[in-house]
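Q: Structure tokens for this one, please.
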Amino acid sequence: MTELYSDRETIAIIGMSCRFSGADTPEAFWANLRDGVETLSTFTEEQLRATGIPEQLYRHPNYVNKRGTIADYDRFDAEFFGYSEEDAVYIDPQQRLLLACAYEAMEDAGQFADKSAETTSDIATGVFTSLRTSTYTGVLAPVLIPQGTVKSLQAILGNAVDQGSMRIAYCLDLTGPCINVQTACSSSLVAVHLACESLQSGECDMTLAGASALFVPQNHGYLYEEGALLAPDGRCRAFDLRAGGVVPGSGAGIVVLKRLRDALANRDQIHAVIRGTAVNNSGMARVDYRSPSPEGQAAVIGEAMAMAGVDPRTVSYVEANGTGTFIGDSIEIESLARAFGGTSEAPYCGIGSVKTNIGHLTQAAGIAGLIKTILALKHGELPPSLHYETPNPQLQGTPFYVVDRLRPWPESSGHPRRAGVNAFAIGGTNAHVVLEEAPKPEEPTALETPPESGCRLLTLSAKSTAALAQLIEKYRHFLATHPEAAFADICWTSNVGRPHYRHRLALAAADHKALAIALDTAVPLSAEENTRLTQAEHPTFFLFSDRVADQGYRLFHAAHPGFGAVIDACQPLFAHLTSLSLHAVLAGESAVHDELARQCLAYVVQRGLAALWISWGVRPDAVAGCGIGRFTASCLAAGIVPEQGLELLARSPEDEFDSIDVRQTGISLLGPDGRAEEPRPDRRFELPGRETASPGAELAGLIQQQAGCFVEIGAASSCFAPWKTSVVHRGLWLAAPGPNEEPQGHTVRALARYYEAGADVDWLGYGAGSGGRRISLPTYPFAGKICWFGLRDGSTPASLHKK
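A: Here is the predicted structure, written as tokens:
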């Protein structure tokens, strides 16, 4: 089948989060969908009485005691989002729920907009969301009625439907367009459309789109009336002959979007892609204002297909609006048939509705259907649409069949799996989204996956010790249940895709199994250990020792480009000076015997290690050294490139050094006598010889007065030993590896200590060349404190039961 052409950008879905009945994560949601579980709640008379439902109502023969509910909707981690508990109780639980989902979706995308994360600080991120009309205002009546007070203003802003997107933008520090969408039951899919349009126009580089719909109190049913929209038996039977309506539900969902080319370039995970979207209104082409229109619905589906450049015959599933009424279903089938070209001898496109699982979520209905379809594309399976027994006669002769059981989603040889998602609203605003399965990731290059990577770091952080302990447990569970997750991807995502909070832990491991063992014994550190380097000023010192190990640096060259670039630059001159291959020496394949070669090796390795630390964001304010380390420190402070320094090192003492090209680096050189000198181009600078003096008592005294970070570079040496005792209690001393320690693992563990002490690390620099991609990892464990106006006793708030 010939593929059509569209010049529209394809949009990648790189993150998502949800709260639906019976599921607080996409993974749990998929498990319910796959197993064909209806997750609606059925209420007892005791629950209904506690909610305040009159006995004459819940005993009415037409009263249906079912509804889709979500857990912990009355809880909120106010402190995490910067609110006092007193202020947070005025915010509609819908907004609080949407805010938590937005944060989790950004974490799932590995794109959290935290300034220290360095991944989205320069990215304009838009927010497009919707809320249903607040029912929490009944709880807040005591402060809403006397208008004009500070508390009434808080309550008004906290419950207005036009504040949801802006609250997310404020709390997550997002600076792109921020729009609240209200088109009734199509709102969240219209929000996705607007988010895609914002990306298409270049208005922003990343967007969040979704909705939250919550009815409080939750524990009550509804009174069925013939001709209305609600089901007589508490079951939504979409496209069934007995379809009688929907069941109300609560929930929230949100997705994170990027242009596909940007997501691929950034090594983002891609759950699925959006090929095209469209929105229209049916106008007056319908029976009345509340009625659907086959013309309007067919038009929006056709427009979305055209925008996507997709032949409808290549779409093999449609997540329908699925109102579960006979008339509504019949009109939707008619509109789909029109958009797909009319009749078909054999059905080839499955249809279903998530409303049969979780109820009708009003403003959040579209995002629920979208997330369901994304998950189906990811897993290559079509989950069942529930309570379907006898087909709606309108299905006869159309391309559509109802997916009534779990089915494999067949692949096509000519194109990826494709799906459509409908969302239609009372009032006539229709939306359709064309989805496609994510492109298969390209095979990593040899550069991206070094043959041996040695130790890697996994970083975890939280705003409290308790939250960090919970996060550790979540990662233990993740590793145990996701053995397929690539070790490099886990480390990359945890390091570059999360904000880094005060309470920190960094674990060094060489593989998945070693990481699991490390997590099993991991515990949060003390406050003292997490704050050694959190002062406004904590100077960093590089201390170059008088020796390096003869070998053991092969893994540095393979796994860390910062080190490897120095080695590669110095290799030709090193070979010329010593008749040895520098790579062979580092790999332990050649030995160093004469003194010149030993000094050249020490210099090059120390320059490589210094470049490595700097690439990780650890830049020295001052340097010192002993023996050959004094020469290395001088070259670094003077801005002498590594290969030029190697050439100068090889000269005889009688050679003139007038041609040294000094650059101002801002790095002070500490002399043996304790004096500090900052090499500058306008001043004469003399390099020390190969045999340089060891640090004197004056320098030792100067160092011992500091409370910064001291990084030993080279191999363990006695020349700095006297300083350690006095420094270790005031700052952080990162010792060089000892004789029996593997240098790469030792250095990575030193970086872990630096991070745990509260210092900032350039995680993009650290992970360069690691081959890691962003993946879904455990999200932040919010503190679930009850947050409800009028709460007095710390138990379930009375306002949940009676007004």
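A few notes: The chain is about 35% helix and 15% strand. The chain has a mean pLDDT of 89.
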